[in-house]
Amino acid sequence: MTLGEDVYAELDRRLAPVDAARTAAYPGERPGRQPVHTCYVPADAVVPGLAAAWGAAALAALDEHGLPDLGYDAGLLAQVLPRVRAKLADEPVEDLRVDAEDGYRGRPEAEDGDVVRAAEAVAADLAAGTAPPSVGIRAKSLEGPTRRRGVRSLDLFLSSVRAKTAVVTLPKVTDVEQVRAFLPVLDALEDAHGVALDLELQVETPQAVLGADGAVTLARMVHAAGPRLTGLHHGTYDYSAALGIAAAHQSSDHPALDLAKQLMQVAVAGTGARAVDGSTNLLPVGPREQVHTGWRVHAGLVRRALERGLYQGWDLHPAQLVTRYVATYAFFRGALPAAAARLTAYVERADAGVLDEPATARALAGVVLRGLDCGAVDAAEVTAATGLDRPALDALAGRGAARPGSSA
């Protein structure tokens, strides 16, 4: 060796603060399960037993109309459908958001009562053990005309829901300072109600993507929010309208929306927050032909999002649960054989024709774990296919313990 220790020591001295800052800002994959969807239900429509009612309605729609051709192999579909039926019976809703914003059409003077009744309904399901695994509320934005009303609804909801953890969705964010100003409000709500709160930001405005200074506002918002932030949720229709896209062409697969969602993915990468797709307002309701059209569109959008690494989206109607789970289960079951073979080759250092690096192994393990989490595959078949148990997959995927400041 020709270099002295002083060269190495100086390199460490100069880069140690950079190492620490990067580790703090990019702690890696958030531990625990990510829901495959968020179901938005207007505050005045939330009643006890809501998740079970959505599941029953989805099963009834499937029984009445039958599944149309969605382009899946018959053998794969035969594996998927029994699992979908079981999911709709046992855990149809993975994440519920009481909506006191755009989906809520009640009169202003009725909002207090509607929010409290919705919270009491969720509380009853939590006490009965029938609530979805994740629950929360979307209140109004922090823009001047709705700011106090939004925070008041949060306070009323949390005072009645009596949950240990909840998610707060902040819509129509336009400025990083709104995020910074909202964090002390969340602290106060936690102290007042004894609840751990996670935060979601909705990307529904062009200003949330690109600021007046030309900077990507999304990244600044993510790091301003810190470990509370669980995700950036894209708002399909508000964002489309803000760009001037004609109503007939507003859809989550519009190329203009792809740009925003790709920037969301870049902004959250490595932070523990997640990029989440939006919704479709083409509902599978009415006569069979109309239901089938709605299911084909929804299944195609879910499949497209999954292929692009967006593993969660919005559902607005019980019948959408059918194609949410059909498309999701088909995706993860279809991915398992190849992912298992590559993981096995990676762990065993075998020459299998594909040279995967640690980052790819993390992604492969993550896909298998997502399939396990949502019920698309089970532990026994994963272990049989990969030779790996859940702790080994968690380790490969880089999933660690929950971080301070997060209810995850």
TrEMBL record:
PANTHER family per record: CITRATE LYASE SUBUNIT BETA, LYASE BETA SUBUNIT, PUTATIVE (AFU_ORTHOLOGUE AFUA_4G13030)-RELATED
Q: Which GO terms describe its molecular function?
A: lyase activity; magnesium ion binding
State the UniProt keywords alphabetically.
Answer: Lyase, Magnesium, Metal-binding
Write down the superkingdom of origin: Bacteria
Q: What is this protein called?
A: Citrate lyase beta subunit
Source species of the chain? Geodermatophilus aquaeductus
Supply one GO BP term. Answer: oxaloacetate metabolic process
Which cofactors are named for this entry?
Mg(2+)
What residue ranges are annotated as transmembrane? none
Q: Does the keyword Magnesium apply?
A: yes
Give any Pfam family that matches. Answer: DUF6986
